[in-house]
Design brief:
Blueprint (H helix, E strand, L loop, with lengths): L2 H66 L4 H27 L7 H13 L1 H10 L5 H25 L4 H33 L4 H24 L2 H10 L3 H15 L11 H90 L10 H8 L10 H57 L4 H27 L12 E2 H10 L7 E6 L3 E3 L1 H20 L7 E7 L3 E8 L9 H9 L6 H5 L1 H13 L2 E6 L5 E8 L3 E3 L60 E4 L5 E3 L38 H19 L19
Length: about 775
């Protein structure tokens, strides 16, 4: 397709849209015209229905007079004459009814009901003529049903025809007059029935009172909604001797006592018929006025429809001309602007945000300089509105890049603050660990030693909090391991860094799985955060388990608890935070646990997922890729015995948190205490193998500064064959004091102190001396 045809298509589309909307407008207008015409037909039928209602009321009165008195030719002739008048009105109604195709709303169903009622009218008349003993109540009831359907149709015209408020009020004015006539006619028949029975019954009195009340309400409603001119018509018609006589007779009937004859004479029918005739005259004048108004409304709608049609035709011609003259260059500019907007939304802006997501991406540049360097998204041409839109879009694009750069700079500053605080706290924590280490070496009292170990554990948790700040700051610890560690030792070391380590069970783990040294410390940190949250948000008496299973190409570690879990609407958000760690912000610090886990997992391609545990609780599933671990056949050779400690007794589910068992930077060595001379029977071990300088008075070994201090960090406890710190049995002294590593002795003493504390507290875990506020994190 050529450019000309493409431009023609682009110009045709809005033209078709204009034509479509114009057609829709014309359709609406045509519908209004049709509705106005249909409303006029309904109003015309309603006016004829009013006349038919009046004729049926007169016929009902004649039938009542015929059935309540003795056989009288005058009454029969009057009934037959009224029948002819009613039939003439029915013929006019059916003529108008045939011109209207369909009525709106429920008016159509009401007209069909009226047709059925009029079809049964001859049978009712025949019954009145041929059976003088016909029950009056049954006859009047049939007439009342027909009249009620006619009045119901009149009342539905305003709503079904969708007339305006003013026009609807006019239509309803005639309806109220028709209801007033029906109340007067019913009162007239009720009085005739009471005269025929001889006395006024309570039921008849109630019926007469109800009809008089209905008449009063209808007249008041007419005066409320009718125009002043129409109210004048009614006031003039309800004057004169006949109307005054009718009112007197009504008052006499109202004062009548049940059980006695009514104080009325033969003039009752005459004066009441005069009242209904005058009401009918006013009703006809109102209906004629309404019909004129509806006709004017229909004609106005026709003129509007014709005007709109001409306007639409003119608009279509104008659109075609303007599209040919101005559409082509405008469309070209709009297409260029759209292409530039898509490029910014899908390429330029995502690329700028991705470039700013790394720490220090701004370098020495300011956010304004970075945004200016990004350049304009759209080349502005001309000075028209499209050019102004392009310039405004360039401003929006620059502001978006500048704001993203400001956010990146703020994150860098916040990360720098975190790193600075963490480094300073790390130095203080290291000094605290050294002081505690020195106090632990020479402390013979088990209770004070246990308290010192609790402080040492608290310092380890403080160090983990410092490492969390480093992770949020985008930096890792300065240490780099060169040896791998078994996964079970990684889990135990992680448990030792939690506050409630005594509730953690390292369950079944596949043997021979070694975590690469570069990831050991970070995985210990990751699992420590998950275990700490699992114990913090579960009941004190429950256990938290950690298990590892090796699959074909990955290692799955599950941390399970029986805690409170999460709400149904929080699982997805928590997993999204773990899969895509949020940038450093206040919310990340408040919920530092999951944020740190997400950042550590993203560094190694680890997937962490939270899901509800059957029976209550949470399962944290950590999937490690094969780039982070290896099996025993792929692992490095066994590490140097000097850097791996021998296994210690494990009286509790998890080893006691000792300083040398947590993967933290090794504290600087402190000068050893003056060694005491060993017993004469105990030969000292060779200098190349001994790491102690005698024993204390209680038999504990004293540490000794090694010949050459190593910078290798204290590793996770590992049980590696052939890696024991103890010398061969032949090298042990004969008095039974075996050479032991200080860390091993420290762990044993911690277990001993923990056992003493548990027995004193009723088998409860020893309470920490201090609580660490930094460990209070959200799950």
């Amino acid at each position: 397709m050529t450019i000309t045809r493409k431009l023609a298509v682009l110009a045709t589309v809005p033209l078709l849209a204009v034509v479509a909307f114009a057609a829709l407008a014309l359709r609406i207008t045509a519908g209004q015209v049709f509705g106005a015409a249909q409303l006029r037909s309904m109003v015309a039928i309603s006016a004829q229905v009013g006349d038919l209602t009046h004729q049926l009321q007169r016929e009902r009165t004649c039938a009542a007079a015929l059935l309540t008195g003795e056989a009288n030719p005058d009454r029969t002739n009057a009934y037959l004459a009224q029948m002819q008048a009613t039939d003439a009105s029915i013929a006019q109604y059916r003529q108008l009814r045939g011109r209207m195709h369909a009525a709106r709303g429920n008016s159509g169903s009401l007209l069909r009901q009226v047709d059925d009622d009029l079809a049964g009218l001859p049978a009712l008349r025949k019954q009145v003529e041929s059976s003088p003993g016909t029950v009056l109540s049954a006859t009047t009831f049939h007439y009342r049903i027909i009249i009620a359907d006619l009045l119901a149709y009149r009342g539905s015209v305003a709503g079904a025809g969708r007339a305006g408020a003013d026009l609807a009020g006019r239509i309803n004015s005639g309806v109220t007059l028709a209801r007033a006539q029906e109340s007067v006619s019913q009162q007239e028949v009720a009085v005739l029935a009471s005269q025929a029975s001889g006395v006024l019954t309570p039921a008849a009195q109630q019926a007469i009172t109800a009809t008089r009340t209905g008449y009063t309400e209808a007249v008041l409603e007419f005066q409320r909604i009718a125009t002043p001119e129409w109210q004048t018509w009614l006031d003039r018609s309800l004057t004169g001797p006949g109307i005054i006589a009718a009112g007197r007779l009504e008052d006499a009937v109202a004062r009548a006592t049940p059980g006695r004859p009514l104080p009325v004479d033969a003039s009752w029918t005459t004066v009441m018929d005069e009242r209904t005739d005058r009401l009918q005259q006013v009703e006809q004048k109102v209906d004629a006025s309404v019909l004129v108004s509806v006709t004017d409304f229909r004609n106005t709608q026709r003129k509007w429809a014709l005007s709109e049609g001409l306007a639409v035709l003119l608009a279509v011609v104008s659109v075609i001309v303007l599209a040919l003259r101005l559409g082509r260059p405008m469309i070209r500019e709009l297409r260029r602007l759209r292409a530039a907007a898509h490029a910014v939304a899908h390429e330029r802006l995502p690329a700028a945000v991705a470039a700013l997501s790394t720490g220090g991406a701004l370098g020495e540049a300011t956010p304004e300089e970075f945004a200016a360097a990004a350049g304009d998204a759209v080349e502005v041409r001309g000075r028209d509105e499209i050019a102004a839109v392009g310039a405004a879009f360039n401003t929006v694009s620059r502001e978006a890049v500048r704001i993203a750069a400001e956010q990146a700079a703020m994150r860098d500053r916040m990360g720098t603050v975190f790193v600075g605080l963490a480094r300073r706290a790390e130095r203080l924590t290291g000094a605290l660990v050294q002081a505690l280490d020195a106090a632990e070496r020479d402390e013979p009292d088990p209770e004070r030693l246990a308290r010192l170990f609790e402080l040492d554990h608290l310092a380890s948790r403080m160090r983990r909090n410092n490492h969390s700040l480093l992770v949020l700051g985008g930096e890792a610890t300065a240490r780099v391991r060169s040896t791998d560690a078994p996964i079970e030792d990684v889990l135990r070391a992680a448990a030792a860094q939690t506050e409630r380590y005594t509730r953690i069970d390292v369950g079944t783990t596949d043997q021979g799985i070694l975590v690469e040294g570069r990831a050991v410390d970070h995985l210990v940190h990751l699992f420590a955060e998950l275990l700490d949250n699992a114990t913090a948000f579960s009941k004190p008496g429950t256990r938290v388990t950690a298990e590892a299973r090796l699959l074909t190409d990955r290692l799955v570690v599950q941390v399970c608890d029986r805690g409170i879990g999460l709400g149904e609407d929080r699982w997805d958000s928590a997993n999204e935070k773990l899969a895509t760690p949020p940038p450093v912000e206040i919310a990340a610090v408040r919920a530092m646990g999951l944020t740190v886990v997400g950042h550590l997992a993203s560094w190694y391609g680890i997937r962490v997922e939270l899901r509800p545990r059957p029976g209550g609780g949470t399962i944290a599933e950590v999937t490690l890729p094969d780039t982070v671990f290896g099996t025993a056949g792929e692992a490095d050779p066994a590490p140097d015995p000097a850097t791996v400690q021998a296994p210690t007794p494990d009286p509790a589910p998890v080893q006691a948190p000792v300083p040398t068992a947590v993967p933290e930077p090794a504290p600087a060595p402190v000068p050893p205490a003056a060694p005491e001379p060993p017993p004469a029977t105990a030969p000292a071990p060779p200098a190349s193998e001994s790491t102690t300088a005698g024993t204390t008075g209680s038999g504990l070994p004293r540490r000794r500064r090694p010949a050459a201090a190593t910078t290798e960090p204290a590793p996770v406890h590992a049980t590696t064959p052939g890696a024991s710190d103890s010398p061969p049995p032949a090298a042990q002294p004969s008095h039974g004091l075996a050479h032991r590593d200080p860390g091993q002795v420290s762990a044993a003493m911690a277990a001993y102190a923990r056992g003493i504390g548990a027995s004193r507290a009723g088998r409860g875990a020893p309470k920490p001396l201090l609580s660490d506020p930094n460990q209070k994190e959200d799950a």
